[in-house]
Amino acid sequence: MSASLEILLRDARIDLVLARIEKDESIIDEVINHIDSNIRSIKFNAIHVLGELGEKSKNSILKLRKCLEDDDWSIRREAVRSLGKIGEIAKDAIPQLSIMLKDNEESIRSEVATSLGKIKNPTNEAISSLIEALNDNSEVVRTEVAKALGEIGPDAYEAISFLMNSLKDISWTVRTSSAQSISQIGKGSIKAIPSLIKALEDKDWRVRFRVSNTLAELGKEVVPDLIKILYHKDKFVRKCAVDILGEMKITDLKILENISELLHDRAEIVRGKAADALRVIGKEAVPTLIKKLDSVKGKTKNLLISALGGIGLEAKEAIPTIINLLKTPGLDLSREFTFRSFWFGFDSFRKDPLGRKASLRVEAARALGKIALNSEEAAVALGEALYDPKKIVRREAALSLGKLGSLAKITIPSLIKSLKDKNPDVRWRASEALGSIGVNTEDVITGLNNLIHDECDFVCESAINALDDLTEEEQKYY
Questions:
Q1: What DSSP line would sit under 288-342, residue for residue?
Q2: Alpha carbon 376 to its chain's center
Q3: Which residues contact 6 (CB under 8 A, 6 or more apart)?
Q4: Is this prediction's pTM over 0.70?
Q5: How far apart are CA 131 and CA 162, in angstroms?
Q6: Residue 170 near residue 180 (C-beta atoms within 8 A)
């Protein structure tokens, strides 16, 4: 025999009560009646169940409002929570809830704020009470109040100036919630832009992150203020400003020029963010990126090449520039691994002992694999890079040739030579590329067969996969 509803509520078997209601919604009225129980656990759990049911328990609102005056603080809190879960149809409870923002119990004040945000339909009294509660002694309450004002939305317009003050709160959770709420309240939040800009100076990264998102959501109105702080004394403010402009995908040429100037910033974190912002902006930023490649050095140049690669096919006008960066002056393409090639490698090390130029060639090879999928000229350049003295350049060149597919068939002789490269990573990527190119010749098959018993397992596997791909390709024609 199944337990009675009263026993289930007493024992907090909420799952079973909800299961019964799912089968028979008339049980909701029985649950409502149990709010009058003299047994605390039954009363508490009945209120809890009604909250879980949301709008289905609309007939319980009057009784739940009565519970707001209960002597037991936990009953009052559960009633507050359930009214919030019922939502907008519980709007008649707003006046009582507003008064409860001054309750002695912190958890009740916190739940009241949350519920007012869920019920929405605010009265002037509710807004005034929430604004006053922004000064609550509890940071938990202040945080929930700030969130609630955001949930209410445009109707909470008069709270903006108070939320702006909360951006200076000692608690980071209050500051971040305030910034988010300002953006949620709507167009009126434009008046808060100066305070939000100032809040970018906050020492807590979580606050800066939330404020940055808020500013980005506000749209083009924030651009003039962002331009002003691109040269702020604080590197994190500069970083946030350029990050926001990138996220907004501002394509104005003057603004792109302003962003590109930060590629010369003294802080590496700012230079990196400027390059990333240009990448995010995309096609319109390509001319700016190409132009800046001539004036930046070291890691920043690498970042710009990577940014162009990140833009992809829409950066095709950068192909000639990147090809030029990939080339190694004085490289003898007819060489085998002889004394001459050894001397070339030694001379390359002597001129660039730290490999900075090699890192440029690596990025160039990678970028061509992303933006030059239709460029035969790029395929030729990548084929030449298979003879680069740096193994990492040879590896990336082979990898990109694989991405070019059949267009790279003119490099097959060079890729076959690369199957004998001393570096296993190069042999691995070269065999992959030959499989992707899909040209089944005797020289290709012989070269790949020679790798089946390579000392490196991943090279063997790659050669076998390439042979399988070529076999499948050949069978399509029979």
A1: HHHHHTTT--HHHHHHHHHHHHHHGGGGGGGHHHHHHHH--TT--TT--SSHHHH
A2: 35
A3: 34, 37, 42
A4: yes
A5: 7
A6: no
Q: What is the CA radius of gyration of the chain?
A: 33
Angstrom CA distances, 141 to 93, 114, 130, 249, 252, stand at: 20, 9, 10, 37, 43
Type of residue found at 106: E
Buried b (16+ CB within 10 A) or exposed e, 92-131: ebbebbbebbebeeebbbbbbbbbbbbbbebeeebbebbb
36: left (phi over 0), alpha (psi -120 to 50) or beta: alpha
Q: What is the dihedral of CA 439, 440, 443, 448, to 10 degrees?
A: 100
pLDDT digits (tens, 9 = 90+) for 6-45: 999 999 999 999 999 999 999 999 999 999 999 999 999 9
- Alpha carbon distance 61, 83 (integer Å): 7
- Spatial neighbors of 150 by CB under 8 A, at least 6 apart, are 117, 156, 177, 180, 181, 182, 183, 184, 185
Length, in residues, of the chain: 478
Q: Say how far apart CA 95 and CA 109 lie, in whole Å.
A: 14
Token output for 440: 């089944």
Longest Cα separation, the chain: 98
Using one digit for the tens of pLDDT, what is the confidence trace for 397-438? 999 999 998 899 999 999 999 999 999 999 999 999 999 998
Tokens 């959501």, residue? 217
**Tokens representing 228?**
């002003």
